Amino acid sequence: MGRLLFINTIDSRILAGITMFVGMMILVGWVAINEESRMQSFVRQHNGRSIERGAELFASLCSECHGEEGYGQGDRAPGLNNPHLFGYDAVGAQTAAITLANRALVRLNDNSETLLAEFTDAENPPSEARQTEILAAIEDLEAQIEEQQAAITAAVAQRVEALNSLDTATDNDLFPLWDTVVDIETTAVDEVEVFFNTNGTRLAQVGWAGDLHGYIVTTLIHGRPGSVNVYPNGTGMAAWSQTAGGPLRQDQIEDLAAYIMNWDKGEGWTTEDFIAVQQYGKPLADGSLPSEPPPPPAGDDVAGILARWAAEEVVGSATSGELLYDAEYGCTDCHRNGASAPDTVGTASRILNERLTLPQFAGYTVEQYLVESITRPGDYVVDSYSSGLMPSNFGVRMTDQQLADIVAYLLTQE
Fold it and tell me: Do 321 and 382 meet the contact criterion of CB atoms below 8 Å apart?
């Protein structure tokens, strides 16, 4: 007795097979097209849950000193729901305008002096035609100098107006060492611009070269025992991480950081937000302030980074790199045992023996491959791992030295 077939003819079977194959391809394509949005939705849900857990931790562990709404408490602990902490400079636009105009004035005055020296050169006097050109050029430069001086005057007036609206905030230590500024309307005093450039944001104030997330996480991990010296009503911030003897796991540290970071309003901060803060951060425990702005980030120009390292003799420290890799940037969370990214162990050997054998990496060094992988992670994704999981902004979060330290650490992973 023959078998009963649902589809009897060979043509029908072929047609059914083609239909099923096309359907499968459409399904695979649909999944591929929607994968990015699915991953983004997953990330949003993950971040939302992290913020919720962080809110609970903040309420139970942090609000007593930093305030229930994160505005801080006078002489006890600084506000974290704070535009100054999030890099919003209340007078940054005016200070930048003054700084740029002063730089332009230096250049214009130098050009004017050079032309005047040529005009009055007794040994090599210029021709009459050249004298006419020089006089016209000096006249044009004088007009530009007047424009820059007027721009400075206007920016200073605007900055004074902005500062007057922030009296309450400055009383709460918005600008530490405020009394050291002799005259904020005297633009000729370089110290005025240095003061605002190094006090406009909290990260500039403490000389932190990384990003805000790293600053918050590092502070949570290690605490601020010296803060008792600058906040007389406080007890000093303890180390919260288990790695430093505290009670919190690394994931809880990250949850707290996510909750604090969620206060950021970007460009939406207002004068009222500054005034709402009850206590701003104070100078370092020894009373010092950085005299220079923090060093610039490494960026993502791989060739430029390596050239700077060579020219400036930047040497990485594997010991410091391990701390940055594990604690500050949390690389271990994904790279441990190859869970979500290639395993940390064996990194240097894999790059040398596997990655650099690929055609696209011909001529690369292990160091070059590592720098590119950290600062431009989307350029090449190792098979079996998903694209987009590794943050793409490490180039703006790390200085050259921090990046060199992490590379030095990874070079030890053979």
Answer: no
- CB neighbours of 284 closer than 8 A, spacing ≥ 6? 206, 226, 230
The average pLDDT across 318-347 equals 87
* C-alpha angle 380-375-250 in degrees, rounded to nearest 5: 105
Tell me the C-alpha to C-alpha distance, in Å, between residue 306 and each of 325, 378, 407: 20, 19, 12
Cβ atoms of residues 277 and 84 within 8 Å: yes
What are 232-276's pLDDT values in tens digits? 887 778 889 887 788 998 889 999 999 999 999 999 999 999 999
Q: Report the top-level CATH class of 302-382+389-410.
A: mainly alpha
**What type of residue is 168?**
T
**Tell me, what's the pLDDT at 200?**
87
For the CA atoms of 73, 75, 76, 82, what is the dihedral angle to 10 degrees? 50
Give me 318's structure tokens.
């594997």
pLDDT tens figures, 158-184:
998 998 999 899 889 898 776 666 554
Alpha-carbon gap, residue 172 to 273, rounded angstroms: 13
Of residues 137 and 36, the one with the higher pLDDT is 137
Residues 82, 246: Cα–Cα separation, whole Å: 26
Rounded to whole angstroms, the Cα distance separating 323 from 316 reads: 13
Distance CA 286, CA 50 (A): 35
- The 3-state DSSP composition of the chain as helix, strand, coil percent (nearest 5) reads 60, 0, 35
Distance CA 339, CA 212 (A): 27
Per the DSSP assignment, residues forming a β-bridge with 73 are 77
> ∠ CA 97-95-111 to the nearest 5 degrees?
45
> By C-alpha distance, which of 209, 208, 211, 181 is closest to 196?
181
Contact assessment for residue 149 and residue 97, using Cβ atoms and an 8 Å cutoff: no
User: Which position has the token pair 């992490």?
Assistant: 406
If you search the block for the tokens 């009394």, which residue do you land on? 179
Q: Which of 179, 252, 356 is nearest to 347 (CA)?
A: 356
Look-up of token digits 């906040």: 231
